[in-house]
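Hi all, posting the design record for the shared folder.

TITLE: backbone redesign
STEP: 1 of 1
STRUCTURE INPUT:
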């Protein structure tokens, strides 16, 4: 096999950006999914597309309800480069589909959760590693309070403790979608890109501000413009 040496810019461009965004229900994760300004395929495991019903025509969607359908979409994407962005909205709901399937295969709940860990890890890696695609996965957010310190952290949420602990390590970019109010009480949304005492987040590019507008288009432009 011939070794292909690329510049960092070319490597990022050919492999695509890989992002995870977690946020509470109603924060606007699906709206964020349609903010790339480029052809996007949203893979939805929930009936939550109403918020983007007026999205441009280059935003497409497919609804999946079984594992077979999820892998059918993956095989299609691995054969054809049909868009610039692939969005799994949300992997929390997709994990529930996988868990339901695994529970149907065994009477032992512990075995079902063990299989969930294995299947979801494989599934997320497959979609994350799709070449030439920018990949965004959204998930629910959980609030965890430390019994000793009383401090509260907001983290990505998936069924099964091991999945929740592992997921942030699988992505270069992990953002917390926050809903806040300004001094006049007006609601606004913002992406937190780095960890603090309350929110799990990270930006391996090192090119983003602590808080960014919830726009995939803007984030991609900002990262790629500074990678040579």
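Okay, here is what came back for every position:
SEQUENCE:
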């Amino acid at each position: 096999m011939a070794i292909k040496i690329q510049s960092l810019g070319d490597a990022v461009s050919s492999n695509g950006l890989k992002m995870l965004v977690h946020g509470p229900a109603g924060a606007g994760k699906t709206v964020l999914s349609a903010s790339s300004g480029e052809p996007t395929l949203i893979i939805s495991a929930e009936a939550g597309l109403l918020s983007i019903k007026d999205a441009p025509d280059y935003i497409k969607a497919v609804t999946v309800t079984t594992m077979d359908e999820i892998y059918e979409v993956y095989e299609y994407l691995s054969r054809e480069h049909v868009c610039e962005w692939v969005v799994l909205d949300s992997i929390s709901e997709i994990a529930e589909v996988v868990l339901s399937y695994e529970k149907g295969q065994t009477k032992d709940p512990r075995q079902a959760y063990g299989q969930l860990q294995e299947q979801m890890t494989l599934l997320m890696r497959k979609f994350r590693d799709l070449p030439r695609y920018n990949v965004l996965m959204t998930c629910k957010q959980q609030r965890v309070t430390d019994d000793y310190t009383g401090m509260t952290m907001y983290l990505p949420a998936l069924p099964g403790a091991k999945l929740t602990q592992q997921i942030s390590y699988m992505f270069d970019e992990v953002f917390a979608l926050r809903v806040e109010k300004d001094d006049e009480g007006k609601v606004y949304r913002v992406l937190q890109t780095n960890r603090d005492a309350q929110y799990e987040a990270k930006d391996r590019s090192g090119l983003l501000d602590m808080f960014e507008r919830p726009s995939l288009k803007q984030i991609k432009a900002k990262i790629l413009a500074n990678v040579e």
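COMMENT: The longest strand covers residues 134-145.
Let me know if anyone wants the other runs.
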